Amino acid sequence: MSAEPQTTARPRPARGEQLDLEIDDLAYGGKGVARRDDGYVVFVAGALPGDRVRAELTKSKRNYAEARVEQLLSPSPDRLSPECVHDGEPCPGCAWQSLPYPRQVAAKQRQVDDALRRIGGLDGFELEEIVPADDLWRYRNKLEYSFGEREDGEVTLGFHARGRWDLLVDVDDCKLASEAGNEARNAVRDWARAEGLPAYDRRSRRGLLRNLAVREGHRSGHLQTRLVTSAARFPRPPVDLHTVIEGPSGGTDGPTGVLGRERISEELGGLRFEISHSAFFQTNTTMAERLYGVARDYASLRGTERVFDLYCGIGTIALTFARGAGEVWGLEIVPDAIADAERNAEINGVTNARFRAANARTGVRPLIEEAGKPDVVVIDPPRAGLSQKIVRRVIECEAQRIVYVSCNPTTLAPNAAQLTEAGYRLRRVRPVDMFPQTPHIECVALLERE
Length: 450
Ligand SMILES: C[S@@+](CC[C@H](N)C(=O)[O-])C[C@H]1O[C@@H](n2cnc3c(N)ncnc32)[C@H](O)[C@@H]1O
Known about the structure:
450 residues, alpha/beta
């Protein structure tokens, strides 16, 4: 942007306009930030601090605009050349791969602090040093790919280009997946090409192949593939699971047909877990262990406590805590995940864990009636965090400690603020880097009753 001081407010730039910008910061979510001297902010996808870029505006609002890089005029001297490249383009899933790793973790640490202070109005807490990732590549145990077609009709299988639902990047080697995971994906694409099967087209609602999920037990070596299609009649696929979606929604829910292996197993924290295809499992097995280690440290269990694990999934946190607690109770909305949690308790010989399938919104009060009030509550919700009503239900638990595992500091912040208004204090926060090369942030927060 122009360095000349402006005395009068300039009109905001229009959508489609191109601007030359200097990027000086990273926003939550991973976009580069440029500031005009009158305070107008432009968030630029694909830009990093120190870059000078020509950017095209994709959205223009009163106080800010969004843009994407049209041309990298002069790259930041810190930029690394991308390692994960598909069809000659940097991988859209590895948005931060050109940022040196120490800068990635520093940005995440700062963004957690910023969210808690600015959005939550919180202070007085100890922000502990981020736990860096052990593996910077090939750490994901689950990846989801979409099918598309090149202009000549050849089927492609990969990721959507950044911000483009209509443009697909064909993937041969995803550097966040293992070699075995890549082989499985490529085998499905080769099969689709050999059989001449068309990709599903969302606009015309024609075609067949929608998406493919590949999940692996990094320690068990198990592999589970799930293919989602639009119609049931076609050659048997070389995958474990096949889900047919007849409607136009394109989601991966509502299976109407499933073939093959339903569950894989994985070892985590010295325990063995069975995972149904419909259940959540942390996508970075090694760092999930570190994450749960921080959560367990914050819970300060002495062996007698009653612990509620809300949003428990297949029971990983509850069962990791069970050995150090009096009893643990898990609550989770997906019934298959609860069935897994019960099976996992049995497999691991854990006898002091109980699981209930319920929505946290309606299930906490009945849980208190059944189990009594807990000493410690663990919360690990999806990115949207807790509604105000669910926070009220958590407050009714009157637990001494709340351990909040969050994959989104911008929703942790208002939840933590509501808890502090009800008499809790935010004591400690520790980010854990589960997702190197991407802007995604995980952290654990400890709140204690005053
Ligand atoms: C981020 S995952 C955490 C799971 C588990 N703690 C783990 O580490 O594997 C969030 C879980 O919350 C569940 N969930 C989502 N909405 C819910 C709700 N309203 N009530 C209860 N569970 C819910 C999801 O199915 C998912 O298993």
